[in-house]
Structure formats: C-alpha cells, structure tokens
Fold these 2 entries.
Entry 1:
Amino acid sequence: MSKIPCKVLVVDDEEDILMAGKLLLKQYFDVVVTTSDPYRIPGLLQEQTFDVVLLDMNYSTGATSSKEGFHWLKQILQLSPNITVILMTAYGDIELAVRALKEGASDFVLKPWQNEKLVAILKTACQNRDSVSKRSAEKAVRENTAYHYDGFIGVSAAMQRVYQTIDKVAATDANVLILGENGTGKEVAARALHKKSKRAGNVFEIVDLGAISTTLFESELFGHAKGAFTDAREERAGRLEAASGGTLFLDEIGNLSLALQAKLLTVLQSRQVIRLGTNKPRPIDIRLICATNMPLYDMVREGEFRQDLLYRINTVEIHLPPLRERREDIKLLADHFLKVYCQKYNRPDLHLNADTLRRLNDYHWPGNIRELDHAMERAVILCDGNELHPDDFYFAPSENGQHKQHVLESIHDNDYTLEALEKMMVQKALVKHSGNITHAAKELGITRTALYRRIEKHGL
Ligand SMILES: Nc1ncnc2c1ncn2[C@@H]1O[C@H](COP(=O)(O)OP(=O)(O)OP(=O)(O)O)[C@@H](O)[C@H]1O
C-alpha cells in the first residue's frame, strides 16, 4: 500500500497515546512526528512543513477545560495559517466542538478513537489540502496571478501564503522575522516588504550579521566618535543610524553571540543608539526585518538565543518553504532561469527535454532557488547542442544513499587539517543518523545549534 504524501504532527501529553497513534498512522501517511510537549510545537513547525496537526485539548494533569488546546490551536494557526488542525478530546462536548471549528480547527476526534475513523478523517484532511493546493496553483497559472510577485516566481499554495502575508504586513511598521533555509528567498521577501511599505522611498539597509566580526560589531552598527579606537580617524554614523527613516534588514540574526544579542536588544528597545566613544543617545526610526536559517526556537530552549530578543523581532513571522516542498514551482523557476541565461549567453534555441525536467523535479535542491539558478547558468554555458540533458546538471547526492560513498571517499583524502577532519566527522554523524540533527549532535557531543553552524560553515 503506498502511503499518502502527507506530514502529520501528533501532540498529546500521554506517551502511550502517541505511540499508538504513530504505529497506526505511519502505515498510511508519509511522515508522522509526535511530541508530548506542546511547547515544542513552534520549533517543529519552523523545522518542517506539516500538513495536518492532531492536537490534544488538555495537557496539565486533571485538566478538562480544553483551555490549553485552544491556546495551542491559536498559536499553530498564527505560525502556519493554512495548516489543518484536528482536535482530540476525551470529553464529548458539542459546544467545545463548535467553538473549536469556529476558532479554525478543521475537525474533531473523540478519544479513545476508532482507528478506521481517525485514519479516514486524516485522509480526508490530507486529500482536501492536496486538491486545494493544486487548484490554487492551477488557478494562479490560468489567471497569471501570483506567478510573478515582486521578485518572486512561484504559484504554489505555500508561496501564495507568503505573498498574502507580505501584502498584509508590508504597510504596518511591525517587526518581521523571515525564516527559511539558504537560498529560499529571504532577502527577496525583505525587499518586497520594504518596497510595499510606506518607507519605500527611503533606504533599505542590509546588515549581514554573519559577516561582521565581534570586534567591529558595535562600531559598524552603532557608529563611533573620532579616536574611539585606533582606526577611528573620524566620527562616523553606524548602519542603524544610516537606516533611520527606512528599513533595516538584519540577515543571519541567528549567528549573533549572546553578548551581542544583549547589545542589539538594548538598542531595539530604546530605539536609540550611542556611537562608540560618545555618550549622546541618537534616536533611530527604523522598520526592522530579520532573517535566519537557524532554528531560533530551539536555540532559545538551549540558551543560545535570547527569548526577549526573539519576542522583540518576531511580531510577524514569514516562513519560506524549501523548494522540495513546493515542487509545483520548479518548472516555472527552471523556465525562468533558462530564459534569463539563454539571453545572457546568446543561446536562443536551448530547451529542456522531458527527462531533464523530471530530474529537476525529483531532485531535493538543498541549496534551493539559488542552487537552481546556478545549476541552470552552468548547464546553459556547458551544454552542447540545443537540448539540455540531465548530464548537463550536477545533482548532489541526498543525505542518505550515495552520500555514504562520498563521505567514505573523503576519509581517504590525505587532508589532516582540523577543518577537514571536523567536516568529515560532521558528515559521518549526519550519514549515520540519516540527517537527524538531534541524534547527530548528540553523537558529536555538541548542541544542535553548534551542529547547524558547522553544517553551514562546511557547506554540507
Ligand atoms: N521565488 C523566487 N523566484 C525567483 N527567484 C528567487 C526566488 N526566491 C529566491 N530567488 C533568487 O534566489 C537567490 C537567493 O535568494 P535570497 O538571497 O533572497 O535567499 P536567502 O534565503 O536570503 O539566502 P541566504 O539564506 O543564503 O542568504 C537570489 O538570486 C534570488 O533572486
């Protein structure tokens, strides 16, 4: 029996219910993740895109009011507005069910559940999501809406949700946190927000926090007085002051050390900066957009990111889905980049054959749109004839399977620098645990965040 391509998250405080649910549901659905801790919900929704959440209504011992369930229902719908939530409760209460549906749940299941009934409800939920997403993609192509949206190309339901959120929040001055893997378009989203905001006529200042050294952080961001340090030959305004009146885009915010997070938070709270070597506060008027590919919620739990800073920057969150989770967009993007590079390299007759398109469609695109862009440029430059074949592209091995061979080969390289050995150890741990970050980090004796940093550093 083939499984339904649907990701289900089950949240219940009773481990035996989770176990029973997982055993049952994984026979029918592609991915079933369980957690007994509702506080993990935001982190899990950030890490992966779920289609359906099966959510218990009561968590504290003896609780029957369902208050916690409504709280988490609201949180889930805020984080993933289009997710399907099915509520579970042991208390048959028609008023509760009606309220749940009014507040955004899609259905309601009584515990103990009947297996067939639960599976049927979840199947319907997954199928409805599938057809809604397909229909909206087809409609968008037909009407040519949402195909191009301010720098974005994409008709998938996931991207249309992103466009809608940008439309809603652009005009406000709300702080926005953009989350997504490398190359998913976080900067494109930040620019679109600025362009559609009332600050559009003013500066859009980008600060890549991953690229600023700890020593230069303060002078670069807050500015400095003449003579504040050896190289400070003249007084200079920092990037925050430069952004005043416009939008400040802080990229890679997850890379900031705890000490620098504290300094940034102080400035964001007071909305004023003091240039290094002076004591005069200067007001700044900025709209703040931050972005990261790091798991900020996990980092908060592990004490690596300040919760107060997270709450300051995440008034609205935008999640950019990885390309492999919106495959409807691959052909559109491939055609777009093909057109761009055919023009650039004067190859007007080049086209993709069906086999190539299939390979592009099936590939996991770890570097997302940036990787597709570069892959197409390289293929256009290198291909002979007028047809692009799969061989014209480089498809990196996925985390499992062929990856193993790649790692083993790298062990035999005579490169014994610490960097090379570190990279190899990280690769080995990832392969051993099939890409499971928590398990790989445990094996390596480092935190998940430290592992994410190394994965990024070594381009894995
Ligand atoms: N939906 C899209 N349509 C067309 N081009 C896109 C789209 N998303 C991203 N791109 C292009 O892909 C490249 C990467 O995008 P961007 O720099 O915004 O990603 P990012 O998530 O900020 O990456 P990183 O985390 O590595 O900084 C850019 O060239 C951008 O123009």
Entry 2:
Amino acid sequence: MTIKELLYKVPILATAGDMEAVINHLTLDSRNVGPGSLFIAVRGTVTDGHTFIDTAVRQGASAILCEEMPVNPEPAVTYVQVQDSAYTQGLIAATFYGHPSRKLNLVGVTGTNGKTSTATLLFRLFRALGYRVGLISTVQNQIDDTVIPATHTTPDVITTNALLTDMLKHGCTHCFMEVSSHAVVQQRIAGLHFAGGIFTNITHDHLDFHGTFDNYIRAKKGFFDQLPASAFALVNIDDKRGMVMLQNTAARKESFSLQTLATFKGKLLADSLFGLHMEIDGKEVWFKLIGRFNAYNILGVYGAAVLLGEDPEEVLTQLSGLMPPPGRFEQVVSDEQIVGIVDYAHTPDALQNVLETIDGLRQADEQIITIVGCGGNRDAAKRPIMAEIACKFSDKVILTSDNPRDEDPMAILEQMQAGVPPIDFKKTLTLPDRREAIQKAVSMANPHDIILVAGKGHETYQEINGVKHDFDDRQVLLEAFANVKSGSVDTP
Ligand SMILES: CC(=O)N[C@H]1[C@@H](OP(=O)(O)OP(=O)(O)OC[C@H]2O[C@@H](n3ccc(=O)[nH]c3=O)[C@H](O)[C@@H]2O)O[C@H](CO)[C@@H](O)[C@@H]1O[C@H](C)C(=O)N[C@@H](C)C(=O)N[C@H](CCC(=O)O)C(=O)O
C-alpha cells in the first residue's frame, strides 16, 4: 500500500518526499524498523519517539510519521507531519489492515475490576454457543484454541488490528477485548469500530498514571464517547459512575443491576464456596462462579450476549456451566482440606471484594490467612490501604512482595505496614520472600482454614530489578501443601 493510500482521510499538516512510496510494515518502535517500514514517532511517558527518527531512517524506513519535521530530512525517505501521531496511528493501522474491526463484532470491556473475567466469560460463552471467537485480555490473547501471549491488557493499536485480521482469517465472528484506561489515554483503541462497550465498575487505581481520580474516570468514559451509534453501551448502574459513562455516548444506552431497575436486572439468591444462585429475567440459575462480584460479571455478560442477538435462555444455560478464568478466585485445596484461593486482586477494591466474599462464606471456626503485596514502580497510595483491608477481614496477614520491580521490596513493605492498625500488629508478619510467605501461611493453617494469596492470579513470574523470575502462586501453594506438615499452628 502506498503512503498516500494509507493516509486516506487523515488530516495532514505537511509532507516531504514521495507519497507513492510503498509501505509493507507499520511500527512504533525504531528497533523493529526495516526496509518498507513506516515508523510512527510517538511522544511517550519515558522518552520521545521523535528522537529515534534518524535511527529508523538508518535502518531503512521508507516513511516517517511525526508531529515535528526533522531539520535535515533524508531525500529518499517520505515524511508526513500530523497533529497527533498516536491518534493517527489508529486510523492508519485500520486502513493498512483493511478495517478488520468493522468485519466482526468487537466488544470492549472497561472498568477497574472484572475486565478479564467479563471478557473471558464472553469468549467462553460465545464458543459454547458455537461461534469462532477471539479474545484480547491481560492473561492472554486467543483465537479459538490458539493462545498468543499478551504483553498488555490492551495492546497497541497496530497489534490489535493484526490480531483482528488473524481472527477473521480463522473465521471469527466476535472478539471480546479488555480496554484499559492507559489504552484510552494513549490512543491504543483509536480507529477501532466497536459493536459494544461494557463498564464493570470504577475504584481507586492507576493514580500514578492518571494523576487524579477524575482523570481516571474521564479516561474510562473516553471509551464510551468513542462508541458509534450502532453500538451498545452497557453499564453497571449499581456503580455510581455507571451513568457518567453514558452521558456523552452516541451508542444505545443499556444497563445492568442487582439493586435497581435496569435493562438487565438480576437478584442474588444464594452465595457459597460452591457457586452462585441467581434470578435473572425471572429465571433461577446456578452458576459455578463464586462471589457477589461475579454476580455482576455474569449479569454484564448475559446482557451483552442478549444485546448481540443471542437467545436469553440458551445464554443462561451455557453460562451456568462456565468455570472461573485462571487466577480469578482459583481454588487449590490440600489433602487436609486447607483451602488456598489464588486471586489477581491487586487493588484495594478487588482485595476487599475477595475478602468480603471469603468472610461471608466461611464457618465461624475457619481462619482467613491473607498473603498480600503491592507492586513496585506503581501507585504507592494504595499500599497502606491494602494492608489495612487485609487486616480488617483476616485472622492472620503476611505482607510480602508482589513484583517489586526497581523498588526496594522492604521500602514497599514499610509503606504497607503503615496501614496496619496497632491492634492488628500481633497478627501481621512481614516476609519479603513470597515463597517463604506462602510456606509460612500453610504451616500456620488448620484444616478448612482459607489462605488467600492475593495479587498475582494468573501471573507466572516475580519481577525484581527488571528480571522476571518464574513464580506461580498456584504451584508454590501446591508445593507448600506437599512439603509443610499441615496442622502445626505457628502463630506470629
Ligand atoms: C506507561 C505506559 O503505559 N507505557 C506504554 C507506552 O510506552 P511509553 O509511552 O512509556 O513509551 P516510551 O518508552 O516513552 O517510548 C516512546 C516511544 O519511543 C519508541 N522507542 C523507544 C525506544 C527506542 O529505542 N525506540 C523507539 O522507537 C517507543 O516504541 C514509543 O513509541 O506505550 C507503549 C506502546 O504502546 C507501551 O508498550 C507502554 O506500556 C508499558 C510497557 C506498560 O507497562 N504499560 C502499562 C502501565 C499499561 O499500559 N498497563 C495497562 C493495564 C493497566 C491495568 O488496567 O492494570 C495495559 O493496557 O496493559
């Protein structure tokens, strides 16, 4: 495709060089440039892509898209100046790949918690309903049975268009994707045509990136503002920001609720460690998912499926058979009936949801032992809050590391300790080594006690100083169950 064809409908400020130059590859990263590449220079959070234009040219780039023209452009290379290269990237990627998002039903899911569960449940539901389906999620991307490792919750828009193209080649009719607030702000969903958007909830998270809670809300809302009139915008109106999401959208406004009148109204009848019993649209159904937060996920998934034209009764039948996604309230039970629960809860709200759920389901003599940490190089404000929540609901708490990245693990843990109420000092232990923390919890547990290992969920690594070391909470729990003699009470 020529650069001129690629720029169809793109507002351009200036050009230099041959507009008939042929482009066979798009990239944001100078390290991936080769002959035929169009290098898109984007201003990032760490560095400015414009500083790599010369490198891209040396590596054979055919064209450069930028916001600022270089002082000495290379005559053999085509340069295009635009107002906003991050946004333009989305329009170009859609044209380059032939607008794949218009050729299937692309549904985006946004919200602080529940994105992965909702997108994954939709993916599994539509497969169970007989469709070929794609998934773009934090845990993994998937085209039917083929798993493609994920690097982001929402990839860059070039990668997304490439994934959607592969999905179409495999006959997919639907794709369910997570839409993170980072992605909205960084234009990673620009130019994508959505058939629908779902809002799960919004709570304190990512303030390191967005600065204020208002900015974070605005970022989420930006997704709904982008939806076309042909799409549906389905929001959880039990979250007080649900209606805000709908304010400026052109899409059809739809809602779901466990508490009030909504397009899709559900009622939670019973909640146990074995599943949920709900009434949806007047029908009683059992689900294998656990916890009130999953009742919301189920309702959102049900609503989206019905809005996509599926038969409500068939949707409920298929949904009732689905299991939780990996690392989402995943249970690992020892021979002695110590219940390990591995959950991705890494925000205050998610941790509170999981702990409230466990607290509501346990018997009076069953202890909750919580293992929790907070990531390095990320929102530090949540550290004391998460420790406080863990203490509020648990009989014992072990503060430990969760991807300290470039930070000193002990410094993160000290910030968490600041949230431990003095009355809870004696039930709290600090063990920076996560493996040791899990082993300690198992050694302290009695049969039927519940050990919550929070934060990593499906992740299979611990990131320390830029190196990802193999670490899987589920595996380490199993090893601890096998190695440590259960029943030996070792109170901190
Ligand atoms: C903070 C953040 O969101 N960063 C994302 C952002 O990178 P950046 O702005 O920091 O990029 P940069 O390093 O400043 O570089 C600027 C530009 O120069 C280019 N460059 C850079 C170096 C070089 O040698 N050559 C070159 O061309 C880069 O490709 C980039 O285009 O844009 C990149 C391209 O899209 C992303 O890969 C990158 O994600 C980083 C790796 C990341 O960790 N992001 C996280 C925070 C994130 O996005 N998380 C959300 C989920 C959040 C949640 O809900 O939990 C997600 O969607 O995954």
